[in-house]
Amino acid sequence: MIVVEDGDYRNNGELLLKHRFEGLELDVKYIEKTLPHVYPLWGRPVHIETVIKHRDVLFTYNGKKCTRRFL
């Protein structure tokens, strides 16, 4: 399940989605291909927080590229 965690993330109107991790990881390729499609709908950078290999990760798409940062 993916939920909207914050519609004003960083007090900048950015969208933060959160994957409610229940043992199954999201496919990184799909994350990196999907975020660019969400960006034009939101009109600002979009983020999704999930768990990859037992570590919290934040994926971000800023309108130009997708990045990931371990939390």
UniProtKB/TrEMBL annotation:
The record's listing under InterPro entries reads:
Spore_V_R, SpoVR-like_C
Locate the coiled-coil region(s) and give their ranges.
none
Q: Which domain of life is it from?
A: Bacteria
User: SpoVR-like C-terminal domain spans which residues?
Assistant: 2-51
Put simply, this protein is called Spore cortex formation protein SpoVR/YcgB (Stage V sporulation)
